[in-house]
Amino acid sequence: MPHDRREALRRKYLSLGVGELVAAGVFAVVLPRLTSAENTAAMWCALVPLLAILVQAGLYWLAARSWVHSRPMPARIAAVYRGFRVFNVALLAAGLVGVLVWMPSTMGAAILVLAVWAFGVVEYVNYFVVRLSYPVGSWLSRVGQRRTPRLVQDIQSSEPR
Fold first, then answer.
1. Which parts of the chain fold into alpha helices (H)?
2. Exposed, middle or buried, 89 (CB in 10 Å: 0-12/13-18/19+)?
3. Positive or negative, the Cα torsion across 98, 102, 104, 105?
4. Residues 6 or more apart from 154 whose CB is under 8 A from it?
5. Contact call for residues 153 and 83 (beta carbons, < 8 A)
6. pLDDT tens readout for residues 104-153
7. Number of other CB atoms surrounding residue 14 within 10 Å
8. Coil, strand or helix: which one is 101?
9. Helix (H, G, I), strand (E, B), or coil: what is residue 146?
10. CA 135 centroid distance within chain
């Protein structure tokens, strides 16, 4: 791969990694403040899985800068992300149980909490099942192609053939 192309991808991965980590930080600070004290437990049950997935994604993009188009994902990192794939499903399920147990009584708060949890599901699917993130103008045509997420491709590339 040409050096310029690799460097462009490294810059893109840096941007993606920092973006995911910043998003996690902003969500952690802002979202709990949008609900009242009585809805805090439900919000955190929805928020923790989302934050975990965003941090995992941010760290993945930053780590991937070291192997992008030069070698496969290191086996140890791939093993960790295979574990995250299972762990995140359990975390999302536990978060949903918590949301349902502490469901806010007001419609607006309930919708916000469920939307935060659903966003965690969407992020999980985007990173571990099928790619969902595309530019707005081509989203509809490209999402139907059901492409494998880059993270999953990297995990698969680290497995012995």
1. 3-30, 40-64, 75-101, 107-128, 139-143, 150-158
2. middle
3. positive
4. 60, 64, 67, 72, 73, 78, 81
5. no
6. 999 999 999 999 999 999 999 999 998 877 677 776 677 777 889 999 99
7. 14
8. helix
9. coil
10. 17
